[in-house]
Amino acid sequence: MPLYEHVFLIRQDVSAQQVEALTKEFSDIITEAGGKVAKSEYWGVKSLAYKIKKNRKAHYTLLNLDSAPEAVAEMERRMSLATDVIRHMTLKVDEHETEPSVMMRKSDRDDRGGRGGPRGGRGGDRDRGDRGPRPPRRDS
């Protein structure tokens, strides 16, 4: 059967227990059709890049699916009808990642460092390159 990665966003005012219940409901659709959910990850509440249906934040969940396309289509249809699901996206992949997804890895966040980078630092000591001498100032 084909492999899929499916990410869906649920409104921020929904409780974590309700998110788990919705995840189980959508997973059951896949398993009832003879497929399986290889991995389910809850990424937590994250800020959205822009408002979606008047929401600024959402609960993110990832499902790795090994299922027939008809079952995935049925799951997406039911997600479209659910009022708590604000977005969903399914990608067909060649193989699933065995380790935790990028969103779950903490080491990436620790390696970034502070605000001392070329654009994030404070103060005016950044290198502006050789722009030549300044033109003379005009007094008004």
Observed structural traits:
140 residues; Alpha-Beta Plaits; alpha+beta
Notes on the protein architecture:
The chain is an alpha+beta fold. The chain has a domain of 93 residues: 2-Layer Sandwich (Alpha-Beta Plaits). Helices cover 25% and strands 34% of the residues. Strand 2 and strand 3 form a beta hairpin. The mean pLDDT is 82.
Question: What is the molecular shape?
Answer: elongated
Radius of gyration (Å)? 23 Å
Task: Give the overall pLDDT as a whole number.
Answer: 82
The helix tally amounts to 3
The counted number of beta strands is: 4
Spatial order of strands in the largest sheet: 2-3-1-4
Helix content: 25-40%
N-C termini distance? 76 Å
- State the CATH superfamily name of one domain: Ribosomal protein S6/Translation elongation factor EF1B
Order of helices and strands: EHEEHEH
The low-pLDDT segments are none
CATH topology of one domain: Alpha-Beta Plaits
Strand content: 25-35%
SS-based class: alpha+beta
The CATH architecture term of one domain is 2-Layer Sandwich
Most strands sheet: 4 strands, antiparallel
CATH C-level class of one domain is Alpha Beta
